[in-house]
Design a protein that fits this description.
209 residues; mainly alpha; 7 helices; 74% helix
Length: 209
């Protein structure tokens, strides 16, 4: 059962990141409300799938690495909670403009430096830390697993994004710089998702401690 949950959650992550990437490419050429809100939805799904995957990784962690596994899960849960609030707000309150305009500006993810924009960066910073600790627990038996372990730990460097709100930012996004940066992130994270699928597909249940 653990193996199946790990594989399905990794498959869901792969699909979510792939759809998000497509939405970002579309955003480079035209503003599209459907793909914009679709990207919010799939990123919420990504966060839930990551928590499931992190939990499965913790089931196979060796006893001396159990603390790192628990930290990875805990950080993943916090990340998912923040991200769920941010994106659910986008596809409900912001989409339907059900609050005052001034409040809407604070809630709108499209306004760089807004409250929920900053929360989003905090969430992904915590995801980065979560992947780092999960990477510490991974027991690599083959080249694919070794690559997964390295990518998970390297992804930990993205934790610096949570400090971006400390820097002075313009009131609104300018140009496609942010979109291009997110495309780069997708191209980095998608291999993690695919390698996770392979990891769970080839994993033997007897390897569980």
């Amino acid at each position: 059962m653990n193996k199946k949950i790990g594989f399905v959650s990794s498959l869901a992550m792969s699909g979510a990141v792939a759809i998000f990437l497509i939405c970002l490419v579309v955003a480079l050429f035209a503003q599209n409300i459907f793909t914009e809100n679709l990207s919010y939805g799939v990123c919420a799904v990504l966060s839930w799938a990551w928590v499931a995957s992190a939990c499965v990784h913790s089931c196979y962690a060796k006893s001396e690495r159990s603390a790192a596994a628990k930290i990875g899960v805990a950080l993943g849960v916090i990340y998912s909670t923040i991200i769920s609030i941010v994106y659910f707000t986008q596809i409900t309150t912001v989409l339907h403009k059900s609050v005052d305009e001034k409040i809407l500006q604070a809630f709108s993810f499209t306004s760089a430096g807004s409250w929920l924009f900053n929360l989003d960066l905090l969430g992904y910073g915590l995801l980065a830390l979560s992947t780092f600790f999960v990477g510490l627990t991974l027991h690599a038996e083959n080249k694919a697993d070794k690559a997964l372990k390295i990518l998970l730990m390297l992804h930990g460097a993205f934790f610096v994004c949570m400090f971006v709100p400390v820097l002075p930012l313009p009131a609104t996004n300018q140009g496609n710089g942010g979109t291009i940066a997110l495309i780069g992130w997708c191209l980095f994270f998608l291999p993690i998702c695919i390698l996770s699928c392979l990891h769970y597909k080839n994993l033997k249940e007897t390897e569980k401690n």
